[in-house]
Design goal:
Helix content: 25-40%
Radius of gyration: 21 Å
Number of helices: 5
Strand order of the largest sheet: 2-3-1-4-5-6-7
Shape: elongated
Number of domains: 2
Structural class: alpha+beta
Largest sheet: 7 strands, antiparallel
Oligomer: single chain
Distance between the termini: 76 Å
């Protein structure tokens, strides 16, 4: 083989290996969130990942609904429970939000094989991801370590350590935006 043909063969070989490895990387990345896509749906995953506006919603349990005939912020239906939105805070651009989005969409952050316990729900807060009039709301049950999609019966069993991190981070986001005095 001539020197110039060997050089072309090496270049073609390098290109083929690069194409093969990039295809594998794309497939691997796609597989990391397969069960999350089944839980939330493709459209919700896209909004969680890319929506330019994010709000933190503080929630009250259904027992509080009796005291609010016309709740000021509305209600959510998550995993069979109805909860009241007691407060909403714009958190777009706060630190840690990019990592939070990524963590919500990675299968490894869930205990998919965990048995369903008879835990009583306590939906503490939710994140609303919005873009062009569309939104998705993911609520966090801090007592049972699960997340749920508004309007769906399905919930996902989040790792307890990650739930604690989300709970701590939600307090931090709220205090950074509202200030320490709550305003």
């Amino acid at each position: 083989m001539k020197q110039s043909n060997r050089g072309k063969a090496v270049i073609v070989g390098i290109f083929a290996v690069a194409l093969l490895l990039s295809s594998y990387a794309w497939w691997h990345q796609f597989q990391q969130g397969r069960r999350c896509r089944e839980l939330f749906g493709t459209k919700a995953v896209q909004l969680i990942r890319l929506a330019p506006q994010v709000e933190l919603l503080r929630l009250e349990q259904k027992s509080a609904l009796a005291s609010h005939l016309n709740p000021p912020e509305g209600t959510l239906r998550i995993g069979g429970d109805t909860v009241l939105i007691s407060q909403h805070v714009e958190i777009t651009g706060t630190s840690g939000l990019l990592h939070a989005r990524h963590a919500l969409l990675q299968d490894i952050n869930y205990q998919w094989d965990a048995s369903r316990s008879d835990c009583t729900s306590h939906w503490s807060f939710a994140l609303r991801f919005s873009q062009n009039g569309e939104d998705v709301i993911i609520a966090f049950d801090t007592k049972c370590n699960r997340v749920g999609l508004n309007g769906s019966e399905n919930t996902g069993p989040l790792l307890p350590e990650l739930m604690q991190t989300f709970d701590d981070k939600s307090d931090e986001w709220e205090s950074r935006v509202l200030g320490d005095d709550g305003r």
